[in-house]
Write a structure and sequence with these properties.
With 507 residues, the chain is an alpha/beta fold. Helix content is 48%, strand content 15%. The chain has a domain of 145 residues: Isoleucyl-tRNA Synthetase, Domain 1. It is elongated and about 90 Å long.
Length: 507
Amino acid sequence: MPRPFYVTTPIYYPNDAPHIGHAYTSVAADALARWRRMWGDDVVFLTGTDEHGTKIQRAAEAQGVTPIELVDRTSAQFRALTPLLDLTNTDFIRTTEPRHEQAVQRFLQAVYDAGSIELGTYEGLYCVACEAYYTEDELVDGRCPVHGTPVELVTEENYFFALSRFEQRLLEHYESHPEAVQPTTRRNEVLGFIRQGLTDFSMSRKSVTWGIPLPWDPSQTCYVWFDALFNYCSAIGYGSDPERFDRYWPVDYHLVGKDILRFHAVYWPAMLMAAGLEPPQCVFAHGWLLVGGEKMSKTRMNQIAPADLVADFGVDGFRYHFLRDQRFGPDGDISYEAMVTRYNADLANNFGNLANRVLNMAVRYCGGVVPEARDDGPLAAAAERAFTGLTAEMEKLDFAGGFGAVWDLIRDVNAHLEERQPWTLEKQGDAGAAAAAAVLGDCLEALRIVALLASPVIPRAAAELWHRLGLPGDPAEARLPGAAEWGGLPAGAPLEKGEPLFPRIET
Ligand code: MSP
């Protein structure tokens, strides 16, 4: 029975078109999902859109349409990221779907029945863009610390979630599960926040009509974050398919931006505990993609559409940049020039040229098929290092480090060619030709492993290289660890030269 593996992205606010900040999390989740599938896991990879609340209600009003008209249109743009970026999500959830609304109502009732929701009066400073309250000292110059926009004073009678009661349990949970929030700096941040003391938060709104009604008091709607977080459970059958729910819950990884860490690592596990459900196994918070040092946002008008970069760099080039050039953890500045440089160096030169050189020589010197001969020289060890390196880094979600190990193998193959010079050997009689074939046999075998290990990040080029090596199917269908063992390339398979895998980009 394959191991279940469940990974999620945040569900995005469709008040706006998707930008590369959204695409970033989705591509990372996709690389992880692809990687786990190669290990034979039964992967659920969920993404979707967060469609209730004031933010959407106001965006719809501003455009003179109803909220559902707005989200029907804009949610589709997020769904379109899947074919655009070669994402392999197995589901796409919208919080306006009946399956979600029903699950949320069941969950709300369970938490209410357990006594963790009570009526109270709330007065607070609210940022509509964040859909969150802030205390006076969290504001920056009296404005929202994330958006820099004015906050609103809101007073309401509504229901409160008894977060304060979960302080101790959360601390105990994080003490006994140090891996549950990553990276460590984020874990410390979460622990610090909990230790300061938790206050109950209002989980319903009277004034917001665009939301899920509370089952016991339909005059109020559920606070959008309370509703949104539950998507992770409703998508896998909470309340409707208990067997499926038990199979995938608790989730393996919630990938989130650092701005929504508190919701995922404090509120969410407490909400789950209140309903007798297990907290997530890991919330991993990544940094922001910055443009000229600033976070992308609608107000700053510095958003970059994923399709624009895909047009210039291709899907693989796009994915490679975000997984290799950006560290998955800290903030990272994005620059077009740096993207071009990295693309040309790593993809056009190192990966693409190497594949072309080796295939060209093998076609010329070895009669167009994979030679029998092998040296089983230093490349076997280099391939082993790449595999163990990638495996270790993927455990930490260090994509840059992991795929870096694969590009180290590419560098080693290039160096091996320079050292052994099959083009010189080939001219040195029968013994030379045999030696050249053995060098090329090793290089082709190493290329097979490169294609295999690079396939979660550059799936198209990896599949094409796989095909040119005469291998059937797709590297994504190969199974680890066996497929990464040295010697898997069958002799006699037909080789193909083909066009450059990554044409250089001239600026
Ligand atoms: N709807 C909520 C999430 C609910 S999850 C139950 C939300 N949506 S969002 O569309 O505003 O943001 C979704 C994700 O995109 C967040 O993880 C956020 O950090 C990420 N990003 C938005 N802008 C970003 C960058 N500039 N850089 C990297 N990630 C960014 O929050």
